[in-house]
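Input.
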Amino acid sequence: MAALLLLPLLLLLPLLLLKLHLWPQLRWLPADLAFAVRALCCKRALRARALAAAAADPEGPEGGCSLAWRLAELAQQRAAHTFLIHGSRRFSYSEAERESNRAARAFLRALGWDWGPDGGDSGEGSAGEGERAAPGAGDAAAGSGAEFAGGDGAARGGGAAAPLSPGATVALLLPAGPEFLWLWFGLAKAGLRTAFVPTALRRGPLLHCLRSCGARALVLAPEFLESLEPDLPALRAMGLHLWAAGPGTHPAGISDLLAEVSAEVDGPVPGYLSSPQSITDTCLYIFTSGTTGLPKAARISHLKILQCQGFYQLCGVHQEDVIYLALPLYHMSGSLLGIVGCMGIGATVVLKSKFSAGQFWEDCQQHRVTVFQYIGELCRYLVNQPPSKAERGHKVRLAVGSGLRPDTWERFVRRFGPLQVLETYGLTEGNVATINYTGQRGAVGRASWLYKHIFPFSLIRYDVTTGEPIRDPQGHCMATSPGEPGLLVAPVSQQSPFLGYAGGPELAQGKLLKDVFRPGDVFFNTGDLLVCDDQGFLRFHDRTGDTFRWKGENVATTEVAEVFEALDFLQEVNVYGVTVPGHEGRAGMAALVLRPPHALDLMQLYTHVSENLPPYARPRFLRLQSLATTETFKQQKVRMANEGFDPSTLSDPLYVLDQAVGAYLPLTTARYSALLAGNLRI
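Output.
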């Protein structure tokens, strides 16, 4: 009887909540609760792993850094389970452990260790536990030009390669493949830091990246040697130890690292070599485009590596899943979320050196792929492919990634479903991430009180004209209302630190906001504007400052402008991003003012841009202006970005980058129409 009396009240409850404007939020409460439970279980599991590693024997592999002990653990618990598929090659977790042990021993030998004829430590010339680098020693050296002492006790001058020493940084300039992973894992086990260098970088940007992270060695792919030939004198002058990751006819001074690795035994190395003194110590550098110029080396801590082990668990992926990964490993999404996330659950990853839309579904069928890690561009490539038999009958149940436009999302699910799309948001150097665990189309996450209790963040009001948060009379920031774009910020704490970048503190300028809600608090500034709707869903709105995203990469407008300004016929350059229908992100556009009496030399400009900028950073459009205006650069950027590149509405001469021709050509109405129709590739 009591139940019958309560039934009308329960039926009226949604109406009451709707009247109180609570129903849009509370209707998602079950999903919020389920994700909160999963997140708390994930945090507890990661904490247990960290405590187990801290209590392990320091001489054993389980006593090493988070990456080393997790691999050692998987080699015991899931020894025969396939970890990696790359082409026709397959590697189990035990094979991955042995391959990385060989790599670690090769790097330790470069540090002066003598393993003896049987691969054991002979005790001669070996670095002991007491000789590990002091905490932060590598940080101090990164970007400072300091030399490491080791081996023979001093760095040789005159451009000779400096010997490696504990805590040194080794840069990897390699495509995605098994060798990338074994060398990365081996460096971690040897207590050395790794720097992931974007493979498109050459000349000035490449040298800048190596200097900024304090690299003492560079491992490069043999297939890159030809394009790197002009850079070799500068690399040698920096005193770098140069290795090639494979056989071939190499220039003088470059040895085959893989041959050295294969000569080592595959026994474990002591865990104390890689065990950090603090979990926030830097273990890795990943380069991210800076708003003030060239790429910056973001510090990745052991804590972040540990946290990324929980990524796929948060996404609901299981150890029997097969993950398809065709993203560059020099990005966080490929290496930390894809590879480390896969190791976190002990699953299998199908790794591709390059994405092929035409081969994708055949690969998925062949390897029984169940999870696809994407960036928005990849999904767009897939929906633009002609239909094929392989796209039906696949086992892909989940697509996880970022940057997927709502229109592409709908086409992707309608054509290739049923499958779930799980859109995420995060930054390499950031301390906040969001996950759209409900699958709400177009959203990047939830702003429920439950989620913000576990992963705290806020949206604050922001003035796009001044480029600063809006503060009240007391000097504090103000939270946004539903539907209002706001700057995403997250509190900095011991559990969610911001480590900044290798080099001087000025590189992190603007990344930290103080006195946000109360005196003395410190928040990380993501530089991104998001919108929270009345149901609590977060949607990406725009980037602030002087960066935009194109082809899955962040482009720093100041870096591009500096390259243009080196041309003597240009007086003024203003670079910004414009929206292109049918494309994710924004395409680069440069507004140019000529220096009298010079004329525009498009051939010289194209050659200069091609030699000094990676492909994704090259502006797709040029706009030739006659005179500079009285507006500030920021005001010009906002106005010109809104004006776009339609030749029928702009009187200024416009040019478009035709990649097939390899030149900047006049943007006529015919070419503009071809671009919108998808017949002109940019």
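Residues 137 and 167 are 7 Å apart (CA to CA).
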